[in-house]
Amino acid sequence: MSSPVECVPNFSEGRDPSKVDKIAKRIGSVPGVHVLDVHMDPDHHRSVITFAGSAAGVEEAAVLAAGEAMSQIDLTRHQGGHPRIGATDVIPFVPLAGVTISDCAAIAHRAGERIWDQHQIPVYFYEAAARREDRRNLANLRRGGFEKLRETVATDPLRCPDVGGPGVHPTAGATAVGARGVLIAFNVNLTTGDLEIARGIARAVRTSGGGLPAVKALGVLLRSRTSEAKPDQAQVSMNLTDWKQTSVKQAFDAVMAEALRLGAAVHSSEIVGLIPAKAMEGASVDALCLAGFGPEKILENRLADAFGTNWQGGSQLFF
Fold it and tell me: Among all residues, which ones are annotated catalytic?
């Protein structure tokens, strides 16, 4: 494997492992494509599957995954803490070594056309694959979620899909397909169950609220972690879209400072999916209160496991 491409689709299912397993197996059925990580979250009601392979392989696997998710997930019965517009909510293609962001945008465009042709799921292109400037930001596409999109897609020209339509798929909604750099999904869990505190912290630390650069954040209540012996737990869920601008440690410290200001504290944190080794430099597991973290969460380690220690690119990934 000389030029691997990473793909990190998010699916609107985080509570039924059998459904997520079927999607992961569908992805892994493509020759030369390796599933690197599967993360499920019942509160977000969302799964993130990370895989890599050749450009042609990841394109094929992404299209197959969208079809499998369509057969497994019914958005009309779905409720969770994370915004979503589709059973396969987002499909980002990410360049690693020997591949450019333009290459990934071209893969995204081909995959998006095929998802509509083969599955009748309309597609929006975002970030580097966006065909309209107002669709670069994924949040603009997901505003109001599946329910609002279903109501307005056929009548509002601003919501018209880039591919397909005029309506959304009745149970699978629509899918945002894009190309981007490495994104770190990082959650910080609080000692409080006060959702408004988590939302307040999220507003303070995210870029759109005047906080840290290249940070998106929202507050979520972790109901699955509640019991008689353990009170509700709120979470600040973040996407670090450029960890060179805002590191994991900087994001953690900002959340902790804001939590203390609001009378709360940090309980733990977690990485969703995989993280580049360099993004962990200057931060320890203890300093971040990281739970469930080990060498298997490092992207380079999983790539070496999948493609061999001598795969081209190695330490020269485009991070």
Answer: 82
